[in-house]
Amino acid sequence: GSFSKKQEDLVNSSWEAFKQNIPHLSIVFYSSILEKVPIAKDMFSFLKDCDGIPLNNPTLEAHAEKIFEMIRDSAIQLGAKGEVEVADDITLEYLGYVHIQKGVTDYHFLVFKEAMLKTLKEAVGDKWSEELGIAWELAYDELAAVIKKTMCW
Ligand code: HEM
């Protein structure tokens, strides 16, 4: 699919808004996931032994930031060359391995997408638009497809 410069700009500016408030927004993100899939609490090393979702937890925040950063990178790559390639610092084989090992399913990927949109809505406030949501969805779907392909369930 094609990804316009405007869509790339929308993703970039909301990524900046996300980065301004990671301590809060990472909690919004994981809360939204656990609301739909409570059992996911046991899947994440930084959640499983906690009562609820830990505040100001560097591992949790880094994980949320990494996911949003990878989706934003996908948007840039879609804009530049029309396809997604995962950056060198983390191999696809490894990503596939981690997600298979944790028992991640297609449904989980859907829940992640909804959580991403909810988090971004909160990040950008009144700058939210349907167009902005669609741009992130496209970038997410392409990235998720690449990860799922390496999982091959
Ligand atoms: C781990 C990315 C979707 C569950 C990871 C890691 C990355 C990542 C980069 C860290 C690997 C490491 O450094 O050890 C992504 C991206 C996704 C995605 C970009 C979507 C496009 C999902 C989904 C689930 C999930 C849908 C479902 C629950 C996990 C779990 C871990 C993990 C449980 C291990 C975290 C830990 O315990 O430290 N993911 N992931 N991921 N991911 Fe995902």
State the gist of this model.
With 153 residues, the chain is mostly helical. The chain has helices spanning 5-19, 22-36, 58-81, 92-101, 106-124, 130-151. Helix content is 69%, strand content 0%.
Topology:
Blueprint: H1 5-19, H2 22-36, H3 58-81, H4 92-101, H5 106-124, H6 130-151
The chain binds protoporphyrin IX containing FE.
How would you explain this protein's 3D organization?
69% of the residues lie in helices and 0% in strands. The chain is mainly alpha-helical and 153 residues long. It has one domain (5-151): Globins (Globin-like). Helix 1 crosses helix 5, helix 2 (22-36) packs antiparallel against helix 5 (106-124) and helix 4 (92-101) packs across helix 6 (130-151). It is globular. The mean pLDDT is 94.
Structural class: mainly alpha
Q: Which CATH class applies here?
A: Mainly Alpha
Helical stretch tally? 6
The amount of beta strand, in percent, is: under 5%
Categorize the overall geometry.
globular
- Return residue spans where pLDDT drops below 50 for at least 5 consecutive residues: none
* Number of domains as seen in the coordinates: 1
Give the CATH H-level superfamily.
Globins
Oligomeric state as shown: single chain
Distance between the termini: 24 Å
Bound molecules: protoporphyrin IX containing FE
Strands, total number:
0
Please tell me how large the radius of gyration is. 15 Å
Mean pLDDT: 94
Predict the CATH topology: Globin-like
Q: What is the helical fraction, as a range of percent?
A: 55-70%
Corresponding CATH architecture: Orthogonal Bundle
Main β-sheet description: none
Strand and helix order: HHHHHH
